[in-house]
Amino acid sequence: MYCRYFDVTQREIEPAVESFVFPDYAVHCCSRDNAKYMSVTEDLNDSAVEYVSVVDRRHKHPKFFLSLCLSPMYGNERKWLLLAELVEHNKLEGVEYFYLYVKDMDDYTNKDCLQRSRGHSKYVIFQDLDERILPTDNTTVRELVRETMDTNKTIAMVSFPSLEFMMTLSPPLEYRVLVMWVHAVSIFFPGYKELHFTPEEVVMRHYNSVALQGNPDLTLLNDTAFPAELMSTLYRKVEETLNHVYGSAN
């Protein structure tokens, strides 16, 4: 695979630079002065058929401290209530920015949230729509991240009983995670590791359907309530958001 560079008149700036694809769809191309357009070709002698404009998305400092990457949403069931609650809950936990994926985006849109968030957010939560991170000692997720990952610089990911999230550093860029799946880091850069929390420290409230299959043993289940100090605020925020988007029923 070769990176091809072109000036403002779309004349090629030689030489082309040999590169590679990782893991399956991203090509690493270095920056080049005076390059206004870029393309990639499989062979050095291939002609570039399509071009894209070069957009410098680098940041001197991350714009946000803590963001959330929502995994793609599937299925035909209604998701508006869960989405509104997810946003408002995580805002209460200190999340500042949300990366949301929608269907039928243009071909050039970068849908890899790990790559998209590099340099834009210092820490990123990878989470499903039906999950909530909830520290058990009345601290926020933002405070938890600051007390752990900012303190021990060798930790590139912290995980909870049902969720894991990772971070990227401010420049000079020092990446800790190479490949990220929804709930776990697949490949770390050398020298980095995972920190796993216990249920006594943090729990994930994972919403499941009440339409249970078969005859489950209910003695294995516990009746736990959402923290009272958060419930009223969360309910009000969700109600305000839904009324703003869909209009009040009154």
TrEMBL record:
GO terms for cellular component: cytoplasm; membrane. It is a single-pass membrane protein. One of its GO terms (molecular function) is glycosyltransferase activity. Its EC number is 2.4.1.-. It is found in: Membrane. Keywords: Glycosyltransferase, Membrane, Transferase, Transmembrane, Transmembrane helix. The keyword S-adenosyl-L-methionine does not apply. It is an enzyme of class 2 (transferase). Belongs to the glycosyltransferase 92 family. PANTHER family: GLYCOSYLTRANSFERASE FAMILY 92 PROTEIN. This is Glycosyltransferase family 92 protein.
